[in-house]
Specification:
CATH superfamily of the largest domain: PPM-type phosphatase domain
CATH class of the largest domain: Alpha Beta
CATH topology of the largest domain: Phosphatase 2c, domain 1
Strand order of the largest sheet: 3-2-1-6-5-4
Helix content: 25-40%
Shape: elongated
Length: 615
Amino acid sequence: MPGVLLAPCLMVLAETECARGVSPEDGGGMAAREKPEQDARPRHDVRALEELLASQRRRIGRYTARADRRTSRTPRPHPNGGGSGPADVTAEVAAIGTRDLLDALPLAALLIRVVRDGGGRIADYHYVTENEAAVRYADAVIPREARPPSALRPVPLFDRFPSMADTPVPRMLRDAFDSGRPQGPEPVEWYLPLPDGQAVRIHNEVTVTRCGEHLLLSWERGHHTLLARAAQQLARVCWAEWNLGDDTAQGSEGLRHVLGLPADAPVPTLPQLAAMTTAGGPDALHRALYDVFLRRRRAACDLVLADDGRVLSCVAEPVWLPGGPVWSVRAVMMDVTGDRRARERAAAAELDAQAQRAQVHALADISGALRDAVLPHFEGELSPYGLEAAAVYRPDSGSGVGGDWFKVRVLPGDRVLIALGDARGHGLQAVTLMAKLRYALAGLSFTGRKVEQLTAWLNNVACDDGRESTATAVIGRYHPERCLLRWTCAGHPRPVLLRDGRARVLWEAPGAGGPPLGVVPDQEYRATETVLLKGDVVLLYSDGLVERRAHDPDADTARLVEEVARAGGHGVGAGPAALERFAQTVVQALTGPRQTDDATLLAFRHLHGEPDRPR
């Protein structure tokens, strides 16, 4: 049966698909899986395939000729010593009873008599009898209480099985009798009522054949044909067999669906199948059939249909007579277009991901080197001016780099520049803007102008850089002789002050807050003055440290204040190392492994009221 033959081929096809990594080009593919560019064998066209088939037919012809000669030299004697004429055969057939023929059938069957009316038209169908296979089927499927009573004479079929009248059976009976051609197999369902009101469901594949003035209704349990058809359509798989001995071919119901042929189209020959493919298809099929015919082994190839570019994976195996050549080739074909295209998309996505990862790594290397070059390192140069400083930076978990920057620098006149900003965006673009603003501020601060003017100048630098060059910043100058911090805020979160174990956001003078840098040209900014006491710790930070999506910014700031108070509630500890540990503790409490923005914390501590002046 085709279904039995289909299973091993499907297993080979599945194994073949699992072994493949990439789809062959131009519909090609070989059993040995050589890459086309490494294969030195010549490529074959449809004519070469036709010659291969013709050569195999000649082998079959020579084999059958030898077999015929052997048979003709050794005629078999007739068991009765002579022949039997037509009359003997007719008599022998006539002697076989209808009951014996029915019971010899392996399928369950009913014999049905066609009842005609006075005009010769079909009036009804009468149940006559059933065979032994039908009795065994009833014993296995139908409870005794649901079976119709035994009939001693023909009875109307649909009186005996009423629910069968609403199935395809009446049509199949009529068409089989009128046309003389068998009908089916076709799935049919009906039921038999039980005394308790329940019903027995009967579902079979039914075939109807005309027998003179009678009809033979046979069936197989289940819907094998329907299931096979559905399986072929769902999996887009089919089978076909080409017989080279008589040039015939047969295929499954799914063959035309897979090949994109009309439902009534004949099964294509092997050369016709090759002609349906792209340029590499005939060569791939030729090589596979060469293995099948001459090496008597299974072979696989890929065929790309020229009409729509679909890819068919084909596994073929030889069929031969004992002692003879390969007589026919049996093949299973599966439409693997979706799988191959998914693999191609996955491979392309992987290449794209690799390129992006390489770009990210390169960007991280460049940005990291640039950040290391521009971020300050504190080595005690602030202590003569009564300050200690520590900084902690956490990049985001995506690009690994961002636009956060800070600057702490001693200026002429014993002043100290303290600033922190956040350039818009991520990656190299943000780092570039960050470097521009930081170096610009470093140069502008040597003019000795007030922080209000420095902020306004830095704003114009950002405006001149382009529409996307925006940033926020806190820019301050510390005056040691007065223990005074003068600072401006350009769209940035206000600093936090830790004093005597309590934390709070620094007060800002009315009207002191201004827009981010790079938004409004020639914007004026106003400074706020904060007097520092001994032991005060001021924290400047970027919004990436506190802001969370869908959270209230005020609540985020309150969380920072709470963590600062918790970390420094019992004192920060003396020395730069203790200040560093304090800053690390605060950052660790507020950040996680999946940072969506880079976070920076700059902490500086006021050491005493009257600093030692450098000599």
